[in-house]
Specification:
The complex is a heterodimer of chains A (418) and B (356). Chain A has 418 residues and is of the alpha+beta class. Chain A has 15 helices and 16 strands. The radius of gyration of chain A is 26 Å and the shape is globular. Helix content of chain B is 26%, strand content 21%. Chain B has a 5-stranded antiparallel β-sheet, covered by helices on one side. Chain B has a 4-stranded mixed β-sheet with strand order 7-8-13-14, with helices on one face. The mean pLDDT of chain B is 96. The chains are: A alpha+beta (418), B alpha+beta (356).
Chain lengths: 418, 356
Amino acid sequence: MATKMHKTPMLDQLESGPWPSFVTGLKRLANDEGKPYADMMKDLLGQLETSYTTRKGYWKGGTVGVVGYGGGVIPRFTELHDENKKPLFPKAAEFHTLRIMPPAGMHYDTATIRKMCDVWDKYGSGLVAFHGQSGDIMFQGCTTENVQPAFDEFNEMGFDLGGAGPAVRTGMSCVGAARCEHSCFNEQRAHRTLVNRFLDDMHRPALPYKFKFKVSGCPNDCMNSIQRADMATIGTWRDDMKVDQAEVKNFVNAKGRKYVIDNVITRCPTGALSLNDDDTLAVDNKNCVRCMHCINVMTKALSPGDDKGVTILVGGKRTLKIGDLMGTVIVPFMKLETDEDFEALEELAGNIIDFFAENALEHERTGEMIERIGLVNFLEGIGLEIDPNMITNPRMNPYVRTDGWDEEAKKWFERKAG
Amino acid sequence: MSAPRMPIESGVPDPFPYMHPALKKNFGQWKYHDRPRPGVLHHVAKSGDEVWTVRAGTQRQMDTYTIRKLMDIADQFADGYVRFTIRSNIEFMVTDEKKVQPLIDKLQAEGFPVGGTGNSVSMISHTQGWLHCDIPGTDASGVVKALMDELYEEFIKEEMPNRVRITTSCCQINCGGQGDIAINIQHTKPPKINHDLVANVCERPSVVARCPVAAIRPAMVNGKPSLEVDEKKCICCGACFPPCPPMQINDPEHSKLAIWVGGKNSNARSKPTFHKLVAAGIPNNPPRWPEAAAVVKNILAAYKKDAKEWERMNEWIDRIGWPRFFELTGLPFTKYHIDNWRGGRVNLNASAHIRF
């Protein structure tokens, strides 16, 4: 029996209004008679309308994958069955997602995307998300049977599955040096270096839990790496920021002194800026914390310095199980220019993942592990020295053994002297 | 039998073959940028090359017809290249300023809003919801469509004090992310346990271990191994549900929406912050979630009216104080706003700093 179009009075209401409607898109696919996905999308609309009516979700997971890999496909089977345990919406009873990693920085040519559409029209549902929250292209809606041939075609195009489960996950990087003057390094290279080095840990999930890399070219952190990545690589610089005084004057002239004082000078979090009497800018670079605000406002006049590199933070995550955790600085500054620099980044990431694999409990994220064992144990485990940039303030509670104090103080002075 | 095809483990693709030629040519050599109008970025390279980027909103969950239409537009106006942002906006790069307005006209004619730059409310980043998630308390694409209809004018204009980033998540795992405003499901009742299924479906020790407040214990129920929940301890977080679906946490009536504000990941001015709870108990009301939309619009209106230029939502609240935030938004302040979770005492006011 041919699948009929289900009535969708709730979803229909999402077709009006000025924002583009995904329901209109779903219906177009469902009404596309003769196309392999039409019946699947009719039944998908039926299941989704049921969710809207009953306010419940009806998908369950399972195990579906491709040959050679242990993850990267998100299996979904319907839980809506009739009294004989037959699916109520049989054509959408299997509705799996293939997570495909985009090019770093999410750049595409149209020919590539059209080819992806051809593959997905042939094997999938015609429904694609650019992109999921983990950064993957989400090819949503595939039968178990079609997962392998769809993947094979994407794979032949030069694309690979991303991560799912307790594994290294798909990474994300900002547009960076490709189109941003704030960029402090080659974000795409860092992204590819980090993820591609750990493909085995992505494709064959065997870590305690997920591990995410995200890469942002400057402290504006457009990829939200600090809250969402186990290892965040954020661009910065350590010499003086660059000031074009002629452009500062132009800016003051255009916007007025009050605007500049209210919105640039007094908004500096460390009071490192001062407007001179001749409308040039004085910068106390020793006190600049590289927050980006003044550079964001005066894009023509101000820019990051020349001695660029990255700050590395670990342990960002959200909610489960112990609550929100921000990434913590573990490397205040490292250069990221030469091949050796990128090898050092890769080695650091390897040390972190190895330590995480060996020491985290099941279902424990890096940040939670650090909370449990303490940052000092983590740093010793991966071979990094402590640094006052790692803390907001020194400890407040006195419950600590300090009998190694003299030895530790000696180390500090030796390191400073070296 | 022939050997199966083994994958080519190519990893993250090199972006350069997919990159607009002007971006490739000026990689790492950009001088400054400005924003000629909402939805358009203008970047100038040290070489003098200029690129205008036109940013448009999408529905994120796109059918291949919509995607091909966007590709036709890219072929016609933008040399056959596009890129996507973290919030599922699409960007077209053009090197000829004369093409900017025709491109905007075309996108608008095809129903794609141009905006999302600067001090706008950009596209809401979101999760999968009822469309594809296995543990959703609500939908995501639908909530976002409904809200973006309401916030359309704020997307195509840049009239906010600073940028506003909104996220939605269909459970407290919060895959949608942190934001100036985050709209998430808050479960309000302990899980309902289907004792007939627990022994067959759930690895009981790992479910017990998953509970953040140790409210779950192994138990024999009706002669079968199962689990029980100390409902007084339970915080209704839902962490037990993913590893043990017979512990149903989603409830059509009692899973409510909660709204959080003041999350910020940028380091600009203040340090990054997480969002904080301001409203809960909002009905999960498809297909347009009007109650949630009303709260969001109310908060946005108060922020728009009262914040100073460049203040993100958290910075505005830091300046005026939380009592004033509740006063300006008219939202009720309840005992549930007072943090009692691990380390929560740090969020209490240990000073005589009080505004009257």
